[in-house]
Design a protein that fits this description.
CATH class: Alpha Beta
CATH architecture: 2-Layer Sandwich
Number of domains: 1
Strand content: 25-35%
Number of strands: 5
Distance between the termini: 41 Å
Largest sheet: 5 strands, mixed
Structural class: alpha/beta
CATH superfamily: STAS domain
Helix content: 25-40%
Strand order of the largest sheet: 1-2-3-4-5
Order of helices and strands: EEHEHEHEH
Number of helices: 4
Radius of gyration: 13 Å
């Protein structure tokens, strides 16, 4: 059996927003790499394209919160975009839908005024 994998592809946009497209599982096995890759980013706005995340668990949710808090402390903006049905369900159960900015599409998240 293959170990869980999470690929992150970064795509700068013209408006100063960096879009990071996640592909794979954001779970206990992949959160360390996720945080190591995304915490150092200095982009003023970061949008995580979650459309390729096939599985999100509580450790993955915790990593999203850590990244949000880290960026907020540095006055950097953060948003989630295109959560899958499973990802949306996990975020709703955790009660974090209201805390973490979440948009149906990457375009909407990129153009929105983020908190």
């Amino acid at each position: 059996m293959q170990p869980p994998k999470l690929d992150i592809t970064q795509q700068p946009t013209g408006n100063g927003t960096l879009v990071a497209r996640l592909s794979g599982k954001l779970s206990l096995e992949t959160v360390n790499g996720f945080l190591q890759d995304l915490r150092p980013l200095e982009a003023s706005r970061l949008v995580l394209d979650m459309s390729g995340v096939s599985y999100l668990d509580s450790a993955g949710v915790g990593a999203l919160v850590q990244l949000f808090v880290h960026r907020r402390a540095k006055s950097q903006k953060f948003a989630l975009a295109a959560l899958t049905q499973q990802g949306t369900a996990v975020m709703q159960v955790s009660g974090l839908v209201k805390l973490l900015p979440n948009f149906p599409t990457v375009d909407e998240a990129s153009s929105a005024a983020l908190p």
